[in-house]
Amino acid sequence: MEGDNSHVEMKLSSDMDDEVDANGGGENTNQHNHPYYPSKLNQRSPKTICGFVIGILFLFIIGYLIGYLSNRNTDKTEIKSNCPVFNEIAPVRAEAVYSLDWSDLRALLKKKLTTLNINTNLREFSSASHQAGSTGDEALANKIMGKFKTFGMSTWTDEHYVKIHEPGSSNNRVLFRGNVVETTEGYLAYSAIKTVQGAALYAHYGRAEDFRRLQDRNIDVNGKVVLVRAGLLSFAEKVGSLTHSYFKSSQVKVHLGTGDPYTPGFPSFNHTQFPPAQSSGLPSIPAQTITIKQATAIMSKLGGRTSPDGWSDGMLRDTMYSLGDEGDIITVEVNNVLIQKKIHNVFGVIKGYMDADRYIVIGAQRDAWGPGYARSTVGTSLLVELARTITDMIKNDGFKPKRSIVFASWSAGEFGSVGATEWLEGYLTSLNMKMFSYISLDEVISGFDSFKATASPLLYELLESTMKQVSSPVDATKSLHEQFAGSNWEKSVMEPMGLSHSAYPFQTFSGIPSISFRFTSSYPFGTIEDTDQTLERYTSYNTLKLAKTAGEVVGLVTLRLVHDHLLKLNVAKYTSVIRSYVSQIRSKSGRLPSTVTMQWLLSAQGSYDRAASALISAIRNSDLDDMEQCRIINNRIMRVEGSLLSPYVSPRESLFRHILLGSGSHTLAALVDHLEAIKGGHESADIDQFKNQFALATWTIQGCANALAGEVWDMDNEI
């Protein structure tokens, strides 16, 4: 400051240097008495300008490298949740996730899934006594939970209080002509508890065609005690029959449904306040298994007419079976006891790195009546080995699944998928929007005569391609497809899904694309002969090889569904299924009144065809590296199966609501049968009821087409 005047100078470093040089070697002289003229850029030396530019470039390059290296770091932190319920997991949103390519994954799975580990699991999980809700069942559940935790998986349990049957203090009995026949072993759960008496009638396997053959001979089945062979149908479908089984003793259920029949349509949680109810699938007549000794004693003494050709199986050597007459009186006493049991389902999850809230479930029954080696031990051992293998691939080999994998160990499967069905009922509203597939490991090995599978049509293509990638367990030069499929793989391998398949409630009750398969033969499931030695005999001592092959099939299907950007579910396959049913209905509709027209059903079929074609076209024209676009497409694919559940029937009355694969009057198969009844003039025919069911089925198909089309502005609704 100088009086009223002030002078402020701001100097750049380069200017200061110039000044220092100009002032004779940098002496600090007073500049206040001399005017200051700031230097300009064009007055700087070339050396200074060059240094300035190089500095800027250097900083830019350093920043670019830091950003590049940061983006290459693909390690994502797994979601941690304190809540044990998996459906509350929030999705992880990410632009992209680096993962191994498909050929690497296939090779890793084959290498890490070993017969040595499978054999160790078989020994560890084999148990002589592990009935549902028993201490043996609980011990196995704790072992499985411990394994999942050792693998670093998030775990939780699901608890239910269910009603099941057990033998009473008074043994069930069978009397023939007033005399007790041998010792009755085993029982049929959910049979009516009562004593009945009537004339014996042999009905082969108890199929509809078997009873038609009896009716063609003018044989009345009313009031008879019917004897049928085990096999071809589930015991529930033979309900009302005295079933003779060719093994020492057996225990199965005759409830024409799944889950706890005393809480139909809702879960059996503790203290649930629901009015008393029971499933419409419970039988009103008693049923009981008998041993081969009892069957021989009864069949050898039956009178009456000779049975039709093909109904004698050699049990009486070269003697033809008789059908029975009015003097062959059989008395059946069923004294089972209904009790309540607490059961636990056990879960472990490998969480996805992108869409963690979308998941596949791999499940296996844990309980069994008797040893249950093929029924439950093999499936449980494979479940644990697959969990170990995939977690190892994630920890040590860089595999990062895009979606989550849930491993489930079910209890009370022996009573009709009770544990699994109760879980589905408990979380029904969210599962078919988040769970995109289910794979069952139950009864996966029972022999080596054939390879059979049952699945949602959405999974047919994936199963076929997987069979081509897995080697045959007995001939490494051939694939599974070459070994078993032949020229027509669907005809050779695929079979209809029914009550005897544990995947059935997932598919037809919850609308989740499901699959189960098995190396099979005529095996004594549900008996005390279901042991490791028996299974080795039925597999020609190839149990471990078959188990590894089965594990590879499940593993490859699972990895494909969690690895690819788009779900490998082929929506076009349902086009042919719907068209087949529509063709059958159309061919039989000639007897219908003019007020019933095929126009709307044909229109709904066309809507689904166009929606499926439009989705395939959208996939072809989409950027599959755009994760958000893939998620939108996957959501449309996931809606298909659930949209085929009829919204017009009550789960209490018709648990299996799928109109194409389920059971009940709402299905397209029932419409075909109803048309046959109308054509034949049967008393059960009801035109008005048919018209109502016809309209509801038509709109269910149209609703599925609308869901597949996507947004409301993309829907093709001409009805």
TrEMBL record:
<dbReference type="GO" id="GO:0009897">
    <property type="term" value="C:external side of plasma membrane"/>
</dbReference>
<dbReference type="InterPro" id="IPR007484">
    <property type="entry name" value="Peptidase_M28"/>
</dbReference>
<keyword id="KW-1003">Cell membrane</keyword>
<dbReference type="GO" id="GO:0004998">
    <property type="term" value="F:transferrin receptor activity"/>
</dbReference>
<keyword id="KW-0812">Transmembrane</keyword>
<keyword id="KW-0449">Lipoprotein</keyword>
<feature type="transmembrane region" description="Helical">
    <location>
        <begin position="49"/>
        <end position="69"/>
    </location>
</feature>
<feature type="domain" description="Peptidase M28">
    <location>
        <begin position="345"/>
        <end position="479"/>
    </location>
</feature>
<dbReference type="InterPro" id="IPR046450">
    <property type="entry name" value="PA_dom_sf"/>
</dbReference>
<dbReference type="GO" id="GO:0006879">
    <property type="term" value="P:intracellular iron ion homeostasis"/>
</dbReference>
<keyword id="KW-0564">Palmitate</keyword>
<dbReference type="Pfam" id="PF04389">
    <property type="entry name" value="Peptidase_M28"/>
</dbReference>
<dbReference type="InterPro" id="IPR007365">
    <property type="entry name" value="TFR-like_dimer_dom"/>
</dbReference>
<feature type="region of interest" description="Disordered">
    <location>
        <begin position="1"/>
        <end position="39"/>
    </location>
</feature>
<protein>
    <recommendedName>
        <fullName>Transferrin receptor protein 1</fullName>
    </recommendedName>
</protein>
<comment type="function">
    <text>Cellular uptake of iron occurs via receptor-mediated endocytosis of ligand-occupied transferrin receptor into specialized endosomes. Endosomal acidification leads to iron release. The apotransferrin-receptor complex is then recycled to the cell surface with a return to neutral pH and the concomitant loss of affinity of apotransferrin for its receptor. Transferrin receptor is necessary for development of erythrocytes and the nervous system. Acts as a lipid sensor that regulates mitochondrial fusion by regulating activation of the JNK pathway.</text>
</comment>
<dbReference type="GO" id="GO:0033572">
    <property type="term" value="P:transferrin transport"/>
</dbReference>
<comment type="similarity">
    <text>Belongs to the peptidase M28 family. M28B subfamily.</text>
</comment>
<dbReference type="GO" id="GO:0031623">
    <property type="term" value="P:receptor internalization"/>
</dbReference>
<keyword id="KW-0254">Endocytosis</keyword>
<dbReference type="GO" id="GO:0042470">
    <property type="term" value="C:melanosome"/>
</dbReference>
<keyword id="KW-0675">Receptor</keyword>
<comment type="subunit">
    <text>Homodimer; disulfide-linked.</text>
</comment>
<dbReference type="Pfam" id="PF04253">
    <property type="entry name" value="TFR_dimer"/>
</dbReference>
<feature type="compositionally biased region" description="Basic and acidic residues">
    <location>
        <begin position="1"/>
        <end position="14"/>
    </location>
</feature>
<keyword id="KW-0325">Glycoprotein</keyword>
<keyword id="KW-1133">Transmembrane helix</keyword>
<dbReference type="InterPro" id="IPR036757">
    <property type="entry name" value="TFR-like_dimer_dom_sf"/>
</dbReference>
<dbReference type="InterPro" id="IPR039373">
    <property type="entry name" value="Peptidase_M28B"/>
</dbReference>
<feature type="domain" description="Transferrin receptor-like dimerisation">
    <location>
        <begin position="600"/>
        <end position="708"/>
    </location>
</feature>
<keyword id="KW-0472">Membrane</keyword>
